[in-house]
Amino acid sequence: MGSPIRSLVLVLGLLLVAAAVAWPVVSRYFGRLPGDIVVRRPGFTFVFPIVTCLLLSLLLTLLLWIFRR
């Protein structure tokens, strides 16, 4: 058996791969949340998903907190 750190890194890596594969489908339903900054100009679009980043940070923090217990 491997060390717990190695197992955690493996699980996180698999979760990241799964998220990357599922992103095209997920982004259709959860594309831009209210509070995300979008600037549209002719020939240019800038998106800064600040609320999305905050929610992902909260989710990852909760998951890591649960796994550490």
Notes on the structure:
Strand 1 (37-41) and strand 2 (44-48) form a beta hairpin. 65% of the residues lie in helices and 14% in strands. It is built from two helices and two strands, in the order αββα. Strands 1-2 form a two-stranded antiparallel sheet. The chain folds into two domains: 1-31; 32-69. It starts with a helix and ends with a helix. It is of the alpha+beta class and 69 residues long.
List the helices and strands in order: HEEH
Taken from the alpha-carbon principal axes, the silhouette is elongated
Q: Strand order across the biggest sheet?
A: 1-2
Largest sheet: 2 strands, antiparallel
| Terminus-to-terminus distance | 20 Å
C-alpha Rg, in Å? 16 Å
Q: What is the count of helical runs?
A: 2
The average pLDDT score comes to 82
Q: How many domains would you count in the coordinates?
A: 2
Chart the SSEs and their pairings.
Elements: H1 4-29, E1 37-41, E2 44-48, H2 50-68
Antiparallel strand pairs: 1-2
